Amino acid sequence: MNDRLGADAPRLIILLVGAVGAGKGTQAAILSRELRLPHLASGNLFRAAMAAHTELGDEARGFMERGELVPDEMTIRMFMEELGASRAARGAILDGFPRTVGQARALDETLARQGERIRRVIYIDVPTEDLIRRVAGRWICLQCGTPYHETTDPPMVDGHCNRDGSVLTQRDDDRPEVVRARLERQVPPMLEVVDHYQRAAIVDRLDGTRPIEEVTAEILSRIGETAASA
Ligand code: AMP
Q1: Per residue in 166-208, pLDDT tens?
Q2: pTM of the model
């Protein structure tokens, strides 16, 4: 659908918002393929910078290891650089940034200086108790990396990998009490960002409890309307 955009059409910059377990990463990957736009995930960008031992990666490491947000100034600098890169020439799917109102304002101001703006904010809404059930049901085989889910994708033999029979493990940060704590920290600032964009009336709040394909179809239809009205 993005093919309809001419060379001088405004960039299609879409922000995906959702808590851990809402399916944001899954949807971002599908949308990136469908719309042929890069998926810019701030967490992945920081992890890549850390792995490559860039100055930014080394500065961000401590914050990430403590599970804290990286300071706005560094995050904004890193993300704006990515958004300015040639691979984002036709637009991008933003994931994980902006995560604070300060970041949102800085992003808006930079885009406005270029005559641009975030075109659509897609908020994938899933009630907290569902999120905990989804994330806390995740198990993984440490031998081969195959993920399972207690209710939606259980192994054939309880607690063992279908492929190699290894005992399945639960990640420490996927345990219910840890997930709850992560959500309590993560959700309020996320809602503030949604609220910030609600003022510009560009937020689509979607029911994320539905099957993946249904959520994708609705997102694509909303983005289609946005692209057509450019
Ligand atoms: P994520 O993969 O989105 O959970 O991000 C992993 C870590 O990267 C977070 O815990 C933060 O330390 C850092 N991070 C990612 N995005 C941001 C952001 N927008 N603002 C500040 N820190 C971020």
Answers
A1: 999 998 878 888 888 888 988 999 999 999 999 998 999 999 9
A2: 0.86
Catalytic residue among 11, 90, 99, 133: 99
Q: Does domain 12-136+186-228 have CATH number 3.40.50.300?
A: yes
Assess contact for 91 and 3: CB atoms under 8 A.
no
Contact by Cβ (8 Å): 73, 100 = no
Which helix (H) or strand (E) covers residue 73, if one does?
A: helix 72-84
Ligand 1 centroid, distance to 186 Cα (angstroms): 10
Helix (H, G, I), strand (E, B) or coil at 75: helix
pLDDT digits (tens, 9 = 90+) for 9-51: 789 999 999 998 899 988 999 999 999 999 999 999 999 999 9
To test the pocket of ligand 1, the residue of 42, 44, 95, 179 to mutate (highest count of ligand atoms within 8 Å of its CB) is 42
User: Is 210 one of the catalytic residues?
Assistant: no
50 C-alpha to ligand 1 centroid (Å): 12
The three-state secondary structure class of 186 is: helix
